[in-house]
Amino acid sequence: MFFALIAGERRMHTALVLALLIMLTPAGSAFASETPLVIPRVTRPPKLSDFITNTPREAEAVVTVFKQFDPHDGEPISQPTAAYLSYDSKNLYVGWICKDDPSKIRARVAPRKTIDTDDRVTINIDTFHDNKHAYWFDVNPYGIQYDGRTTDGIGDDPSWEGLWYTEGRITETGFVVLETIPFRSLRFPRGPKQIWNICLARFIQRNSELAIWPFVSRQRLPQFVGQFAPIEIDADISPGRNIQLIPYGLYSQDKYLDQAKGFQHQNEHHPGLDAKAVLHDSLTLDVALNPDFSEIGTDDPKVQVNQRFEVVYPERRPFFLENASIFTMPEDLFFSRRIVDPQFGAKLTGSVGRWGLGILAADDRAPGEVLAQGETGHGDRAIDAVFRGEREFDHQSHVGVFLSDTTFQSRSNRVGSLDMRYIAPRNWIFAGQASTTQTELNPSGYQAGPGYLLNVEKMDNHISFESVYTDRSPGLNATLGYLNRNDIRRWETYSAYQWKPSSHTILAYGPSMDVTLIYDHEHRLQNWSASPALSLTLPGLTWLSVAHSEAFELYSNIGFREQSTSVSLATSWYKWLDFSGSYAQGSAPNYHPAAGVSPFLGKANNASADLTLHAQTHLRLDEIYFYTRLACEPGQMPSPSLPTGDVFTNHLIRSKLNYQFTRDYAFNAILDYNALLPNNALVANASSKQADATLLFAYVPHPGTALYMGYANTFQNANYDPAATPAYTVTNLPGTSTDQQIFVKFSYLLRF
């Protein structure tokens, strides 16, 4: 069926033939191989104390020449740094001795993956020697871990979780760190010896400095992994038998307010199992029974009022995270959060030679749960299937195919796509994608249509340029993806130039321009925008930008001429304070006007502030604030009878406290407040004020094993009195507890 689907489009058929020819082309490399750095094998693993006391180790390869990637490409590192590598039959060891003034070191005892602004060291490992994919293992001076995967052309993916071990200590002359990385936590092909590509790096945040061995230059971007140096492990190592089982249990007691029935009580318990097996050392099979899709941590707030398109949140559920980048394409044809509530799931991902593979199948109870009792389809579930194959050729280039199918009752959606990415000389990238979809809407109809994307990109130490053309037909629909609109022909070009003086006061500065033009398939202008900006980069992770935008937007067949001026700032100038904020003023449409009112243009004010206070080594305070306001003035309204003034005001506030007793134990308190104050004569939103309080104790010794105990309470501006008519009423203040929950969750990692 999929082959008929692809063959049904003449241009898709041509693209398929070209793609198959490329896939059959012999692979080559644009770069000559370097002599690998040989890593010695040891019988006695190194200890952290060995590096602190300068005790001789059994054997090691030593790296001491680090050059800057940022801020001054190619200059020597500002602080002496040495890395010592060795291995045994089970682990790779990396010891670090980093010289520095202890009073200037930025480091905290914090939860895993919350050390973005800390000084830290890292090893990146390309285990398949493909010059494209790599694991990264960051660690700060207290041994706090931050891991993930990076893929050239896609970027960093911090969702990957690995089991590895770290120790760290601040000394009188700087800090010392030891990383122990089990081979069974990696994926790599079996062989008599291993040739991997690696880079070793150190972050010195007060200087906005990243220094790397080997010399990785911005002049050769977007190839980052492609610039790593080869290492040799001269032994037949293997992850061995690698099976992981993570049983989990969740219990909760909930008291909540139902508008029709009043206060209700509910007790829930959810046992489940996530299982993982590594096949042939390189393919990973994930199987889930009642998978652990509960989210203990809440997403940071996002502004959702007056949004034209859906607001999306990142995927955080464990089942979807392994090798998630294999499903990444120029067009977002697969967005895993579309699978909302599965009971069963299976996924096979990994690499075989120069082939990448991703297969996923799951059910989803959500479509049947949203239907009312007695409605056709209530209690049924959707069946979802996704396939992605990718063949690499030349150096970091690839061609890929994607297929997906989702079916619920008599409705179905099928997607087929081919994509290609080619790395050309002089840092040019050419990418393209051709897609087609079929949607059965029985008994109401049928939709089908193609989509195309072409992308040209160039990046180096000074220039950033990208031009993207997107064509989506009216019938293009990817149910499991995220395409915010169809029936468009869209062209966007972004260009920027950065001067980088040798001064250590101003690190970079320069202009940028972003231009967008959108038509539909009947040649009607939908949008245009032009946004020039100026940016300035300073030490201390400090960045300042001023931008202006002029735009046109067609919405509900009404044309709006818009403009906006904004200023943005991000800084970690002081080691105890991180701050980012922005303010914008201009005009924006009211996308959701009240009944009988046409959309109209209003005066828009938007502000945001994100502040992190590192009160001490173990204590962190986060404050997040979003302010959104739309107002109208005389002469702007579609009817003189409508009032002027505020259309709505929205305040979003989050206060979060984290006290990290040790690397494993933590206490969190989160307070959220969301107030939407609308003028109901002008906007369709209802007035709402909600306050949420969450208290959470967490014990997380390593990924997969965790104990959470928490209490959550939601207060809303509502009241329920069964003796009154109506029983449910809206009040001015969020003084009624509408949802109280106590929960306990436990999971345990078993490895065989």
The helix fraction, in percent, is under 10%
Task: State the CATH class of the domain at 31-233.
Answer: Mainly Beta
Let me know the largest β-sheet: 24 strands, antiparallel, barrel
Radius of gyration: 27 Å
Low-pLDDT residue spans: 1-33
Number of helical elements: 5
Strand content: over 45%
Descriptive notes:
By secondary structure, the chain is mainly β. Among the domains are: 31-233, Immunoglobulin-like, CATH 2.60.40.1190; 241-293 and 688-752, no CATH class. It is 4% helix and 53% strand. The chain contains five helices and 41 strands. It has a 24-stranded antiparallel beta barrel. The longest helix has 14 residues, at 10-23. Mean pLDDT is 90; it is low at 1-33.
Give a short overview.
With 752 residues, the protein is mostly beta strands.
Outline the fold blueprint:
Elements: H1 2-7, H2 10-23, E1 37-38, H3 48-52, E2 61-63, E3 67-70, E4 81-87, E5 91-99, E6 120-126, E7 133-139, E8 145-151, E9 155-157, E10 165-171, E11 174-182, E12 194-204, E13 209-213, E14 229-233, E15 243-258, E16 262-279, E17 283-289, H4 318-321, E18 344-352, E19 355-364, H5 366-369, E20 382-393, E21 397-408, E22 411-423, E23 428-441, E24 446-459, E25 463-472, E26 488-497, E27 508-519, E28 525-538, E29 542-555, E30 558-571, E31 577-589, E32 601-613, E33 619-632, E34 645-660, E35 665-678, E36 688-702, E37 705-716, E38 718-720, E39 728-730, E40 736-747, E41 750-751
Parallel strand pairs: 1-14
Antiparallel strand pairs: 2-4, 3-13, 4-5, 5-11, 6-7, 6-12, 7-8, 8-9, 10-11, 12-13, 12-14, 15-16, 15-40, 15-41, 16-17, 17-18, 18-19, 19-20, 20-21, 21-22, 22-23, 23-24, 24-25, 25-26, 26-27, 27-28, 28-29, 29-30, 30-31, 31-32, 32-33, 33-34, 34-35, 35-36, 36-37, 37-40, 38-39
